[in-house]
Amino acid sequence: MSTFIVRPSNTDKDPFRIKLTAVSMLSLKLKSGDTCELRSTDSAEYGKKKLAIAWEASGAGMKDSIVQTSKLLQEVYGFKLGDKIVIARSSQLLQDSDRVSLEHVGSTLDEEGTKFWETYAKSAIPGVDECLVESQRLRFRLGLEVTEFVVKDVAAHDAMIARVSKNTKFRISTSNEPTAALEIDFSPSHLGGLQEAVRQVRDIVTRICRPVVKSHFKLYRPIQGVLLYGAKGTGKSAFISALAQSGWPTVVDWKPGTQLRLSNEPQLIILSPRYILRNAGGGSNMVNELDKLFDQIKDSPILVVSEVRHPNDVDGALRSEGKFAAEIELPIPSALQRKEILVALRGDDIVPPTGLLQEMAERTHGYVGADLYALVRRTLELAADRSPSNAPPTVNGKKSLPKGDRTTLRDTSGEPLAPLEVKSIDLEEALREIRPSALQEIFLETPNVHWSDIGGQHEIKRQLHNAVERPLKFADRMRKLGLQPKKGVLLYGPPGCSKTLLVRALATEAGLNFLAVKGAELISMYVGESERATREVFRKARAASPSIIFFDEIDAIASRGRSGSDLNVLTTLLNEMDGFEELRNVLVVAATNKPQNIDPALMRPGRFDNVVYIGPPDLEARREIFLKRLEKIDEEQRLELYEDIEEFARATEGFSGAEIVAICQTAGEYAFDADRDVIISEDIRKAIENTPKSITREMLFEFESWNNARMR
């Protein structure tokens, strides 16, 4: 008797077979076909006899602590994925049932119908199911109609389960249970990172199948139309597929002319996007068809689902109460959601290892589910190619893969292939090949940069910290003083002076979602797309508040003298910052190297209220930058260089922070070229001499003049 973790089976055939590894079968003294007893480790359930058929799992890679079970077995025995159960060899053999009692769910069958279904069950069930268990639901589909029965008795004395054969007789009675009470179990374990969307849809399904409110409020009509939207590869099709496989008696792939069979049974209707898009084929006729569809199903337990990239792509007539009343976004995944997706993709396999999965999650900003699948696949392929023992055999000089399951591949000598060793170098190469398909979409997550990563700039850090902390932590105090939180902060100054790093660190330290947009990326050749992208930025920021929107190179979209579509982008930006919809718990931060080019409209009160100059690092900041860079080298040589830090800091007056970092990098290259493993002070002095300053006196004078003019 041993404890095992419940995991899903990869097939629904023979649902009362449980699959164990050869090692587990041996330890339990079982062979394929033996009867075993399952018990929950939960004391409330312990002792209830639940029999199953033990079967050896094919292939390798499955852990000895795992038992694979079908969804049906989990349902009837009350197990959940991840539960720990006890398995023991049973002395009780499975009996062949001579009689099975079925109860029809729904309206009463007449005598002719009862005889028909008894005959149908006798001919159909033995060829499909090896065993039946009490409380199991059976659904028979004839054409578009589904008829449902519940197994009430298998005549197996003290056991819930029995084998069926061609000699088993079936007897049918009728229940008054309405089929709309049927539970639709939408709990997909393989859809990582989509828990919120799953929860919303599950709630909608529950209200359709169990309309409790309807019994108290006659005008109540539950939501019956769900529109899933999101970028390419976020899992919309997989989501709908999982929903369709969650126990609906009837699933209809709707097209114009489809005749629905309305009943008290829950039904799922799937609409292709081509029928709901603006200017879809058929035009107003198609909208009329869909109007009729939604009107037809309003008193039935039916859910309609479809998918698009963006709700605005859908004909406006369909985005209303009584039609697609629920619009649910499948978002670009954050780092945490990417980890969930990667864990779901791996399943019970041992590769990629957990450490590498974490690295994947952290380095795949902007990757969606489809991208992550492609990345894992390519990483494993590269690992296999790199390992000589895993290289495929050759036939006439060409690669040839042996047939069979991937987990049982053997080389030409019959020996099993060596375990796959996946390393970071495989991920590095895969990342270069597999790029995020939604690269142009908008991404939200918290960056991993801290104040301590940035040398100096203490006063600027304090100003930025106050701009975020005060409205979030001291909202009541600000309200008493009549203070309005700052909506926008403009950072200006020469390039390479840590403007972007400061904003990323601000988001990290404050625990805010961070949305970064380069101004040039919002400029589109298509009329209206730039304005739409700008609105989308603010919509996502509001949804993910508290958050920071960071516009880098804002002068690209907000410079003086713009006209046409470029002016429309600026107008949209202004409207979003101080329009009708309040910008609550969203801080807009912008950076520019050319403040003199920015349209004055952005500098008015209520927009960019806070203007902060980020100049070249002072002596203290330069000293800190050198210290931080030298932290990465060997401690002994670092202590020697510390003696000259003051000299280096004074010698780099007027250099930007980025240039000081480059000086340290160049010094390391000088040491490498000299065939040394240590950096000496002379390397840094030489690097300082050979690094030109990009910040000129004229540039600094322009910044000062602009600020003086602004303050007049």
From TrEMBL:
One of its GO terms (molecular function) is ATP hydrolysis activity. The keyword Nucleotide-binding applies. Residues 384-415 are annotated as: Disordered. Pfam families: AAA, AAA_lid_3. InterPro entries: AAA+_ATPase, AAA_ATPase_domain, AAA_lid_3, ATPase_AAA_core, ATPase_AAA_CS, P-loop_NTPase. The keyword Transmembrane helix does not apply. Residues 402-413 have a biased composition (Basic and acidic residues). SMART domains: AAA. This is AAA+ ATPase domain-containing protein. It comes from Capronia coronata CBS 617.96.
